[in-house]
Amino acid sequence: MTAILLNNICKVFGADSAAALHLLQEGVGKEEIRRQTGAILALRDVSITVGRGEILAVVGLSGSGKSTLLRVVNRLIEPTDGTVTVYGEDVLGFSGAALQAFRRQTVSMVFQGFGLLPHRTVTENVGYGMVAQRRPRHEWEEMSRQWIQRVGLSGYETAYPFQLSGGMRQRVGLARALATQAPVLLMDEPFSALDPIIRHDMQDLLLSLQAELQKTIVVITHDLNEAVRLGDRVAVLNDGSIVQTGRPAEIILRPANDYVSGFAVDVNRLRTLKACDIMVPSHAGQAIDLTVAEDASIEEVLSYQVLRKEPIKVTNSAGLVVGEIEWEAVRALLKRDI
Q1: Distance separating alpha carbons of residues 14 and 33, to the nearest angstrom
Q2: The whole model's pTM is what?
Q3: Do 249 and 190 fall within a single domain?
Q4: For FRET with 89, which of 66, 106, 252, 330 sits at 20 to 30 Å CA-CA?
């Protein structure tokens, strides 16, 4: 079921947005629009669907419109044209009070720069959204303690942000967003300021929480490795337009154009792709001889196959054969990663 639907979203920054939108509808390019009107085209006819409980990772270069797109969902930025629907409700039709309730109850946001209040403790920062929801103090304090424990910060309840590392501050930001129990989580490059090891740990934390909570998540990143690790689907944004949307394997193995290929070239395919991504269908039946699970990484497949170079049967969660992987399919990936 659809949770978020963005339809033909356009965003023009500048005083003469109406003229810019008219030129856009006539097929005029971004630079020519800027030359004629002085307006900046940030998003051009963007349409995206996000399913309930899905993580959509939006990836693109700096200036491609990623953060603008994210902020359109909760109307921190007003689109110039198009429609925004969240859980069946027309977000652009909300009045001031309804919009405020929508931001308090339906969507939470995790910021790149943590966005913590420096004069408040960890407990108070985690509870900030619940205070905005006007929950009683005893309730939000108890919920804050629970979420602090869940993100691995027990013992830091009375600490202030300046006393925490970057990774710890981002854990506070994540706990604050989740504590409101909003079904939609918007994440704007949440881990980009972190060291690689801490960043990987935070990705693990998000995925483990998502396995239980099943939030609808839109995460913005400039790193395709992060996008394919986190996203159930990946949308690639270039110059304000969506150039490809698909499962991580589709983005990596079948890039739509050179721009997408440029992102995909640095992805470690052996770690990112799974057995089910490169297998060929096979008749279902009992697993025999050499087998791997369908969600096994290609590194795992390679560890079995490198010595024998024989086809490997791929099994589903019930233990039945659903496909097989030929040695040549793995060799093709090796040629691109070595």
Answers
A1: 11
A2: 0.89
A3: yes
A4: 66
